[in-house]
Amino acid sequence: MNEQLYRYYIIERNHRAFRKDAPMELAERFSSEGCTPVERMTRRFELMCQWETPRIMPFEQIVMVRTIKKQPDIFTESEWSEIKKEHYIHELGYVSNLSLDYEKIIASGLASVRESADEYGKRVIDALFYLCDGYLETAREQGRSDIVKILTRVPRYGAENFHEALQMFRILHYALWLEGDYHNTVGRFDQYMYPYFKKDMEKGIYTKESVLELIEDFFISFNKDSDLYAGVQQGDNGQSMVLGGRTANGKEGFNELSELCLEASRNLKLIDPKINLRVNKNTPLEIYLKGTELTKVGLGFPQYSNDDIVIDGLTRLGYDYSDAVDYVVAACWEFIIPKVGNDIANIGAVNFPLIIDRVLRRELPKKVNFDLLIDAVKKEIKSECDRITDSIKNVWFIPSPFLDLLRSGKKYNNFGLHGCAVASAADALAAVKMYVYDKKTVSAERLLRALDEDYKNDPELLHMLRYEAPKMGTDDDYADKFGCMILDAFADALERKKNSLGGIWRAGTGTAMYYIWHARELSATADGRRCGEPFGTNFSPNLFTRVPDPISDIESFTKPDLKRVINGGPLTLEFAAGIFNKEENLKKVAMLIKHFVVRGGHQLQLNSVDLDEMRDAQINPEDHKQLVVRIWGWSAYFVELDKEYQDHVMMRQEYSV
Predict the structure, then answer these.
(1) Overall pTM surpassing 0.85 (yes/no)
(2) Nearest 10 degrees: Cα torsion 371, 377, 382, 387
(3) Which one of 393, 486, 548, 588 is at 20 to 30 Å from 255 when CA atoms are compared?
């Protein structure tokens, strides 16, 4: 590891001293001049490239660092109000969560792209050339002949070696953020970068040690400016890298570069890039072991995606096999197609516990039989999906002239809905079925009264529903069947629906931040959850479920037909950090992951956590600045999180093996 580089950018963060505010506001000026949206974006990008000050440290091999803190807005508040009257605006209004055609641009260079670009494309390319030429001149002044050689070629012309390819990616990635686009994913890095890597290794240009240091320098570049990137919390920045997986010819894509990326991530212990491993039932245990060695250091990755389920699930939805086999993940875990995908995989979320609560309050007083209650649940899921899908029309994004240069088309325009807290919803139905309908030990009136009173006057019922009722995650068919039913009803409700862009709707099993946000929307629930308590993260048990072991968890959450809910959303397992200290336990965890894949799970995320360290970090944050935890589809420095996110991580169950 380049210790000097690591200390400068990661520990001491000295580069932040170079940052300054943008020299002028732009929204009022653009408004008064009557500029079109694409003109505004183009001019802002040109100005940002002019305002940036090239900075090169003598010990870095991959250059470019932000010196302007934030892009000025291009629309006034009143203009935004008018835009929102006519359009649905997703999140911040900028394009996000795409995986672009880095392979093509790295190979061709931007000069050739410029030849066929429109007026705005030519202007943004020229602006980026201006900025890169500034870096080139700075490198000359500093006597950095290595950087001069690279920037003389890229980004104008295609990369001819591994170092040039890495620097080219950095320039493209940097420019996307500079434009205002966010959650820019990395895609199948070990596939499109492998030819450059392989050629240089065969020429003897690098040893394993020297190429690893170059990769580590490249990984550090993802962390230089990540505190400036948009997200719910710092760390939620979408820099997801996919390694391994089936290739178009059916072979295993995991290669020497994949392995070095795992090693670089393990050495650096940084939150970016987030590592995702594509695997299948035939993946050798050795690859799972390498992934587990990375899990051991406590970054919350790699996250695993099962090709056997994902590829088939995507093709069922209408994706061409040649595209589906090349799938990657978006910012967190949603499955997207690189190069030609234009999906909005996180456009909304269905609150399953709220749906169950509505049905129980409406139907239980009527004394309906349980089959009619389930019919009402299915109808309510459909009604909620109809409400959400009908409300999302005339979607509009701020034009992104630079990002458009990196696209190879907009072949897929599908929308994804998260299915939030299926375990909480299933547990509530299981509890009602057992105690109200089967055993008849709890009346509907008592249950509804307890919910209204947050169980304050019925602690006996609270304990029974919370700790004695059937739960998803314990491999209990009594609860698990309701989880299967809910997800099937969710998929049914979206089947054959078309969105406003002509694409389809995809059901998923993730929660993202909704495990906190959606929990705020309702009071106590029939699973024993009290008002104010969050749901479990993603496709996982309730936080208070007493899961006997991780196998039980896996058995429960692989029972549904996950090919039908293929928008993504992992089963999340937390392991006590101490278990990884024994070599035999690494193999047990690796075998556990393989079991999940063979069982037909679609996505799995494992964390190594130390509860005592997190407790101390809340009290003494200065002593734990580099402590990393997994939040939902991303990792963050624990001390930089809001307390509610810290507390949620600490509430999750720790497993052993």
Answers:
(1) yes
(2) 150
(3) 588
- 24-to-29, 41, 67, 124, 229 alpha-carbon distances in Å: 10, 15, 15, 19, 20
Residue 212 structural domain: 185-306+570-657
3-state secondary structure at position 159: coil
DSSP 515: H
Contact status, residue 300 vs residue 290, Cβ threshold 8 Å: no
Q: Which of 520, 521, 492, 518 is nearest to 507 (CA)?
A: 492
Q: Is 158 inside a domain boundary?
A: yes
CA–CA gap between residue 271 and residue 259 (Å, rounded):
18
391 and 502 both lie in a single domain: yes
Distance CA 453, CA 456 (A): 6
Confidence of residue 162 (pLDDT cuts 50, 70, 90): very high
Quick one: pLDDT at residue 652?
Answer: 83
Number of domains within the chain: 3
For range 82-104, the mean pLDDT? 96
pLDDT at position 304 is 98
Is residue 214's pLDDT more than 90? yes
Q: Which of 569, 600, 635 is the last residue of a domain?
A: 569
Q: Quick check: 541 and 471 in contact, CB under 8 A?
A: yes
Where does a domain end: 184, 201, 235?
A: 184
Cis amide bond preceding 273, omega within 30: yes
pLDDT at 41: 98
Burial class (CB in 10 A: 0-12, 13-18, 19+), 70: exposed
Instruction: Dump the DSSP string for 286-353.
Output: HHHHHHHHHHHTTS---EEEEHHHHHHHHHHTT--HHHHTT-EE-SSS-EE-TTTB--EEEEEEEEHH
Comparison of pLDDT for 1 and 535, the residue scoring more = 535
Q: Taking residues 371-396, report their average pLDDT.
A: 97
Predicted local confidence at residue 632, as pLDDT: 84
Side-by-side strand order, sheet with 415-420? 344-351, 415-420, 505-507
Residues ≥6 apart with Cβ < 8 Å to 264 = 212, 215, 216, 219
* Mean pLDDT confidence for 599-621: 93
